[in-house]
Design goal:
Blueprint: H1 7-21, E1 26-31, H2 33-42, E2 47-49, E3 64-65, H3 67-75, H4 80-95, E4 98-103, H5 109-115, E5 125-130, H6 131-140, E6 145-149, E7 151-153, E8 160-161, H7 162-165, H8 169-180, E9 182-184, H9 185-188, E10 193-198, E11 206-207, E12 216-221, H10 227-237, E13 244-246
Parallel strand pairs: 3-8, 7-9, 12-13
Antiparallel strand pairs: 1-5, 2-4, 2-11, 4-10, 5-12, 6-10
Helix pairs in contact: 2-10
């Protein structure tokens, strides 16, 4: 028997997620110096596969409570090897999803330190992106992308009932959005993340679709960027006519 899910509660929660995310029309991508030059030169956005991110729990099946389903399958005398293979298929699907992590503000010290510094030198870049322009452009080009705020939990182990993944389209969407946007509080909450999610599994480590120059709204220079680095970055930014520069 499946757990009964109140679909109105699910719909209300998903509307809340969208409304909350829309409070941040500009999001901030923190990158080291070389990555910034490449991103701005190519005019693209980088999504990283779930199994290549720096959080071992990211998009992991460990977030799912599958104990009831395993017991049911074992009661039906399904071999453990078959059960494991079936759940591995789901894990492979989750791991193929792409994540592009951003911040809500351009002054998050943790993000500057962890993602926009080289050897503890804050010489990286924070790039302001127009959330809706990014999503609208990618949708128009056939890419299934959404933006979600990350939720932080004391523990992310077994927080999602597997019944939802097996349910109707609304329940499955709810399940996946929760999977994509849940992280462990103690280690990650200071990042205060908002993320783009490319929900079509892909091969390789990265997926880098191009986006229009109008998606790039501003660039914040790292406080310890050298004069040489500033000059090169400025030359790269000259192709963006309306981008703001905070040096």
């Amino acid at each position: 028997m499946r757990t009964e899910i109140d679909l109105e509660v699910v719909k209300s929660y998903m509307r809340h997620l969208v409304a909350e995310t829309n409070q941040y029309p500009i999001v901030y991508k923190y990158v080291d110096y070389e990555a910034a030059i490449k991103m701005l030169s190519a005019g693209n956005l980088q999504f990283t596969r779930g199994d290549k991110l720096n959080d071992d729990d990211e998009l992991s099946l460990s977030k799912c409570n599958i104990s009831k389903q395993i017991k049911l399958l074992r009661d039906l005398d399904i071999p453990d090897s078959v059960i494991q293979a079936k759940f591995q298929e789901a894990q492979d699907f989750f791991y193929g999803i792409g994540i592009c992590s951003c911040g809500k503000t351009p002054d998050n010290k943790v993000l500057w330190r962890n993602y926009a510094s080289t050897n503890d030198v804050e010489n990286g870049v924070c790039i302001a992106l127009d959330q809706s322009r990014v999503i609208n452009h990618l949708h128009a080009n056939g890419f299934d992308v959404i933006a979600l705020l990350v939720r932080y939990f004391d523990s992310v182990q077994s927080i999602l009932p597997w019944d939802l993944f097996l349910g109707n389209q609304l329940e499955k969407t709810f399940f996946l959005q929760y999977l994509y946007s849940s992280k462990q509080k103690e280690k990650w909450s200071e990042e205060d993340e908002i993320r783009f999610i490319y929900s079509t599994p892909f091969e390789g480590i990265y997926f880098r679709p191009t986006i229009p120059k109008s998606c790039f709204k501003a660039v914040y220079y790292g406080s310890e960027m050298s004069t040489k680095e500033r000059i090169k970055l400025g030359q790269t930014l000259n192709r963006y006519s309306n981008i703001q520069r905070f040096t």
